[in-house]
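We emphasize that the prediction below concerns an isolated chain of 257 residues; any contacts that depend on oligomerization or on bound cofactors are therefore not represented. The input was used exactly as deposited, without trimming of termini.
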Amino acid sequence: MTFFNNVNLINNFGSFPINKLGFRGSDQQIFPQNYTQGKDAFSTNPLYDNFGTKAQIEAIAKSNPTIVQMLKENKIPLKVNVKELEDLKKGHLKNSRVTAAKMYSNLPNELKRDVNLSDLQQAAMLHDYGKVLIPNEILNKKGALTPDERKIMELHSELGYELLKTQNLKQSVLDMIKYHHQNPAGTGYPQAHKDFEYNTELAMLAAADKYSALTENRSYKSAMPRGEALEIIQKDVDTGQLPQEVFDALKKSVSSD
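Result of the prediction step, given as a token string:
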């Protein structure tokens, strides 16, 4: 299986003429267009060593009218939290990626044909990228979020989509990043528009994301045991928000955790 290769990405980036790229008025390109693919041990290595510098991400945000408007409407100051992004890369994003890959190996063959494993793992590694623009006092609040804080937190998936949509990613990957909190009925977030399509890849990412989040330590909670986490996700199956086959693949994948 091939992915963006960590070393080649860094080597290419050093000599790539990013100032010649047109990026909505910005010259900041996080992922070079002439990257080289290579082998990657998905169970141990982060998908990307280079998630972009603070200056690059800030320039992208400032040059994107949608991001500017979202931040203005919600009274969010533009502060790029690169440390949070690095922590996510080493923890939750990696955990989600490994879980999604394991789920693929446990899918029925007829569903495997609907899944591009490379796309799924890229989306898993980048799905929370937008949290780099969410205020830290909300992101890592120890208590429950207020309704207004919850509204801001829920912007992260669309912010991630907007930050990454000119970064040489496939549309299928971008759609998973944007809609990883959506469901078949379209009642999740962000609002499901005409580009929304619920599919097996999206269901797998949603399940891997939720399981990883539940079983990780966070500032506001302790890690949940595997059984309790699966009980919660079972409710998504019972309410039609997650296909049974995807849940079965998740259970098999985490049986030895």
